[in-house]
Amino acid sequence: MNACETYSDEQLLSAIRNDDAQAFSEFVRRYWKKAYHITYSKVRSQSVTEEIVQDLFTTLWDKRATLSISNVDAFIFTCLRNKSINYIEAQLVRKKYWDYYKAFIPQQEESTRREVEFNELMQAVETCVETLPEKSRSVFRLSRLEGVPNREIAERLNLSEKAIEYHLTKSLKVIRLALKDFTLLLLVAFHL
Known about the structure:
0% strand; RNA_pol_sigma-70-like; transcription regulation; sigma factor; mainly alpha; RNA polymerase sigma-70 factor; RNA_pol_sigma-70_dom; Rna Polymerase Sigma Factor, Chain: A
């Protein structure tokens, strides 16, 4: 029997703060199933659920030195709700971009050509993003491609929310300008 199995949640968290890997393993064993069920009920995908739950516990371990959790159930529920919402928002953003792109393609086009054109557009976006300064590039990817909220980006990158908004505004101007010609070429190509 592992000594950590008898620990209360508070004792486990205290041990985890002191880099006790056994206590962390016990914490994961104790809460994995609950975390899995909470997440699966929101995203309805086994692989995505596993990824989100694993990310929760990885983040918990990475930030163990500064852990300040008074209610484990509330902490887990809140974290998983936020991560699930971020995932769902990212999927909606991708769908929105795909729907927007499909509007430019005549209905008689083959699906293969659609995919090729979409990939070209995404490559143009990626090429444009690569030209951005490092901070702006990171902020844009987190916000627009991964769907992470500005508040969380600010925390991750240790910047203010105003700085995040500045980088997004700057990035979007550059990308819109660069893609203006690309969009025009797509429109001309489809009307020929």
